[in-house]
Amino acid sequence: MFILFALLGYLIPATAQSQNFKIDTLQYQGTANNIVNLVILGDGYTKDQLEDYAADSKQFTNYFFSIEPFKQYSSFFNVFAIRTISEESGATHDCKASDCVQGDTDLGKFPKRYNKFARDHAVPVTHPKTIFGSSFDNGGLHRLVVPQKNERIEEVLKTHIPNYTQVVVLVNSPFYGGSGGKWATSTVNFKSNDIAVHEIGHSFAQLADEYWAGNQYAIESVNRSQTADVNAVPWKYWLGKDGVGIYSYGGKGSPSTWFRPHEYCKMQYLLAPFCPVCQEQFVASIKRKSSPFIAVKPILNNVLTLDSVQKFTLRLAKPSPNTFKLIWSLNNETIAQNIDSIYLDPGMLHSGANELKVIIQDTTDLLRNPSYLNYRDSIVWKLNQLQSNALAKPTNRWADTLETCFGGDQVLTVKMPVAGLEYRWYETASGIPIGTGTNVFIRNLSQSKKYHVVAHWKDKTSQPSEILLKTLAKVEKPKDIRIRIDKKKNKVQLTVQEKPDTRYNYIWLNADGSPIYEWDAFNGEYVRPTGANNKLVLDRSATVRKVYVQKVDKETTCKSDRTEVIF
């Protein structure tokens, strides 16, 4: 967590009625214009309780991102907690609601923060002076906690984070309660966070309650309808999936004429998860309120002219697991898919105006409605070329020379491969290609040889690049192996009888080809020997056993052919 005094350039002098508060950045993903800005305000926290507020806001953030679909789409959110200060601690309790239990509760029996007791505990009558005036007992319900100073909330937001998306007010009271509306509100009672998350369903995703709240709320919504027609309900694309159906609100009167999509959803029961229909609406709302393109390079507000191969890069907010499908196109022709950066060659552009475009489709299973499934995010770079250019000569990953062992394999690779180009590899400057693509595999090399690579785009061909595969000297296999049997110790010692040479050592192998390496106890893995390793001692077997030994160049790690040893 780090502290900001003003967010992303917003620093507005305090007026006589306002003051500047510190801002805790609990999660930062990108510029505020592209990301959902979740802002937390504290009410009833004195200046001596700001660390309590920091802990409470962090706890709420962790809880919020433990719930789907916020968990999958957490990278689309910034979270800021403004350290608002109250003169006195707590919230107003008139205790006039019929369900308020008046009296005193010994809070010493409970944890200091995030108090774990239910809603029916005795509540003392209190009237503290707090910055937003949050009070219980609204609408005849004690648990309905509402901030009364809306203008003060607006003022704090305007002077600190005016581009907020969703606001949560945390009230420093251990008693159960909260509310919705413009600001989702929650006390720090352990059950209250669900109230705030439920209410965010109303304000953020325009979800309806899936319990009957009264005739005044009986309006059509994405998760409430007065039709039971399977072809007409707003959630028709989800019917039959994960418990989604058409369920009546009630048996008699108005509730019996209205229907909801699920029987166990957080929009009905606070402890339930959000049903698939509601999760889809959250995802759709996140997409409406944000952009997956956090940053792009080069910037988009200029018309570009390419003088050489240039890199185009995206920094994206992605779901987890990533369900994005990316398509890069140049002048409406696909050149790459599902990568976050590409190289572009000016030789691929025609003279005049060109467009490089990226389209993102979210293939998540959380979306079924075609209007959401067919939604695409996109950006476009405008490019202007004064004339048609030749394709750039390919650059080899390892410059113009690459060494390899005698009889070994090698991989040739194009450095900074350009999206959309076809690379063809040749053993000679022309003829039939030995392979295509950004990589080509060369097998069983026995002599040094030059290879060539050429880039192709439509009717254009680049100049070839050459790379020399330099074959290193052959390592001769061991020839003279002495076998010594110690019957008393029931051991066999195998010794390579060659003139010692510090450049080489030996590796022994089992009959199945698995190496008999040294065990590095410190790193917990097998390693190549550091010494000559020309001797191997094994337990003597009652049957014929077979092992192999190879000579190894310690500098290049090239190996000889295997020598068989039978004992």
UniProtKB/TrEMBL annotation:
GO molecular function annotation: metallopeptidase activity
Signal peptide start and end residues: 1-18
Taxonomy, superkingdom: Bacteria
Protein keywords: Signal
Ig-like domain segment(s): 399-456
Pfam families cross-referenced by the UniProt entry: Ig_7, Peptidase_M64
This protein's name: Ig-like domain-containing protein
Species the sequence originates in: Sphingobacterium athyrii
